[in-house]
Write a structure and sequence with these properties.
The protein is α+β, with helices and mostly antiparallel strands and 450 residues long. The protein is 25% helix and 31% strand. Helix 4 crosses helix 8.
Length: 450
């Protein structure tokens, strides 16, 4: 997720004694490749050698890509002639996320995945990000996209726009040959799973990865999935940019003729005093069941010529963590992963399921999306199905919309946010009631990188 801070309103802030020039939103397309890449390089100061602008932009959906232009750009001393630079840009994908369903089940929901957000370094802190975010969320609302998500490059930015950190990205570091201990039944089931490795960058491999990715997501709380268009280009191999690194590989797990999981791995060679100490990086690992996950995990910790295995994108109660012996055995590190935003409170709260009955009135504070800023009654029956409707009844809880986003995937309970002063309880017991209803049976897994 690519982001830059920019807290002031566009066209209204004063910086360095001069009034900020106004910006206008514009559609971006392939013909804007030069200025999109110019902004990309300025914001992120990363250039991938051997990767063309066309290759870099192939992952974008240009029907969902927008820019911000200065209305009256001033001459720029020393600048070469060329297209007018972009003041900022953003893009999104029509992704999906696995949320809690009724009574411990899971449900796949559409999610607007925001990405490629950047503001020109000369125009930071002038409200351009706020302008783009407001437009983005309004467009999502108009298109009926009730849930949005992102991964923040800097965590202090997106709470002000109503996003809440809903899952953690847990990294596990294991030694080569780590014993992954399971009970006899699970151990026997894992031995029935076959794994094989192929380069990830071919069309055939990318199609298999997408199949496994979608199958695993059906069984994994918090999983975010790529679109078919993203999947066709996401793991392309660029030898010049990769340099001496191994091409990305995929381990595919099968049981008979059925696909049950995958792991994206890259090994790096390293020797210390003539002893092999290569490193294995596991970019993604997903499975439809614990046996397939165990088989994949055992394979990645048993590559020859390696000494360390790093698994990214896991969760706090990941089975791999506990098969390995717990946090001290796995050198656990955690950071924020998916930030969730309820674009339409009523639709989003009705779409997911619940673990327990509830009847609460929520006074939602949401200045960015004013259609949400009102009282809502959430009623959940004994079947775990909820319904959220406008009401004028007295509120039980008052909260920023970000608090609902943080709790949406079944973690970050409302009661804990109330204890931290982020939610105000107006009826005793209401925070615990809503927490019990929204909690998932397990912690959500980290989102894939997007």
């Amino acid at each position: 997720m690519k982001t830059t801070p920019d807290p002031a309103p566009a066209g209204a802030a004063e910086t360095g004694g001069s009034r900020t020039p106004a910006t206008v939103p514009v559609d971006l397309g392939p013909d804007d490749a030069e200025r999109i890449m110019a902004l990309e390089h300025l914001v992120w100061f990363e250039v991938a050698p051997g990767v063309s602008a066309e290759d870099s932009l192939a992952e974008l959906d240009f029907e969902r890509t927008r820019g911000a232009e200065l209305v009256s750009p001033a001459p720029r001393l020393g600048a070469a002639q060329g297209p007018t630079p972009l003041a900022g840009m953003y893009a999104s994908w029509a992704m999906a996320v696995t949320a809690p369903g009724p009574l411990g089940s899971l449900v796949r929901l559409p999610m607007n995945g925001l990405t490629w957000v950047g503001v020109h370094p000369d125009l930071r802190r002038r409200g351009i990000l706020r302008q783009m975010m407001t437009e983005h969320l309004t467009t999502a609302h108009d298109h009926g996209e009730a849930v949005a998500g992102l991964q923040a490059a800097e965590p202090g930015i997106y709470g002000r726009f109503g996003y809440g950190a809903a899952s953690l990205d847990v990294t596990l570091t294991l030694g080569r040959g780590t014993e992954l201990a399971a009970d006899d039944a699970l151990d026997a089931a894992a031995q029935e799973v076959t794994t094989h490795m192929v380069p990830a960058g071919t069309p055939e491999a990318m199609a298999a990865i997408q199949r496994a990715h979608l199958l695993a997501a059906e069984h994994t709380l918090g999983a975010v999935t790529r679109t078919e268009a993203m999947a066709r280009v996401w793991f392309r191999d660029f030898p010049v940019a990769r340099g001496s690194k191994e091409p990305l590989q995929v381990l595919l797990a099968t049981r008979g003729d059925n696909l049950h999981g995958y792991a994206l791995v890259r090994r790096s060679s390293q020797w210390e005093h003539n002893v092999p100490q290569g490193e294995v990086t596991v970019r993604e690992i997903g499975a439809t069941d614990p046996a397939a996950l165990l088989a994949l995990a055992r394979r990645v910790v048993d590559f020859d010529l390696t000494g360390k295995v790093t698994l990214h994108g896991r969760g706090l109660d990941d089975p791999i963590l506990w098969w390995a012996g717990g946090p001290r055995s796995a050198a656990l590190r955690a950071g924020d992963s998916l930030w969730v935003r309820l674009v339409d409170v009523d639709k989003a709260l009705t779409a997911r399921g619940y673990a327990a009955p509830a009847d609460v009135v929520l006074d939602v504070v949401d200045p960015v999306c004013p259609w949400n800023e009102r009282r809502w009654r959430l009623t959940v029956g004994s079947d775990g199905v909820g319904r959220c409707l406008p009401t004028e009844d007295a509120p039980d809880l008052r909260m920023p919309v970000a608090a609902l986003g943080a709790a949406y995937l079944g973690s970050r309970p409302i009661a804990a946010q109330a204890a931290a002063g982020q939610v105000t309880e107006l009826r005793p017991g209401a925070a615990a009631e809503l927490s019990r209803a929204m909690r998932g049976d397990v912690e959500p897994v980290a989102a894939i990188g997007f």
